[in-house]
Amino acid sequence: PVSNLLQAFVCLLLLVLMKKLDVHNEALFSLAFFMVIINVVLFFLNMIPVPPLDGFSVFQSLMPRSPAVSFLKEYGLIILIVILLRGSYFFGPIISMTQGVISWALN
């Protein structure tokens, strides 16, 4: 998950540098823009406490004897599929927030 944030930050820096240096390469700008959004969404997706995602390992280490751990082990894949099918509902606010941060950084 940290690698996703690092990649998003590097792409955001690329966007800012392109604006400051007045580089007009629309393809590179679009690529960097979407890489920021994709990596931020992947970070949040990966931190959901559902197996096999990394967030489950964190949750399990914090609450090893919780009944929620066994529930998530049993039904985690179904929960993950529902989250992925309803992606715009779960990740729409994250995408909007990320677009706001990009707009702020470019002004």
Can you tell me about this structure?
There is one protein chain. This protein has helices at 2-20, 26-46, 54-62, 67-85, 87-106. The chain has 107 residues and is mostly helical. Helix 1 runs antiparallel to helix 2 and helix 2 packs across helix 5 (87-106). The radius of gyration is 17 Å and the shape is elongated. It starts with a helix and ends with a helix. The mean pLDDT is 92.
Task: List the main descriptive attributes of the protein structure presented here.
single chain, 107 residues, mainly alpha, 5 helices
A few lines on this structure:
The chain is an all-alpha fold and 107 residues long. It is 82% helix and 0% strand.
Layout of helices and strands:
Elements: H1 2-20, H2 26-46, H3 54-62, H4 67-85, H5 87-106
* Helix-strand string: HHHHH
- Round the mean pLDDT to the nearest integer and report it: 92
Instruction: Report on the biggest sheet.
Output: none
Shape: elongated
Distance between the termini: 28 Å
The value of Rg in angstroms is 17 Å
| Helix percent band | over 70%
Per DSSP E runs of 2 or more residues, the count of β-strands stands at: 0
Give unreliable regions as ranges: none
> Helix tally?
5
SS strand fraction: under 5%
Structural class: mainly alpha
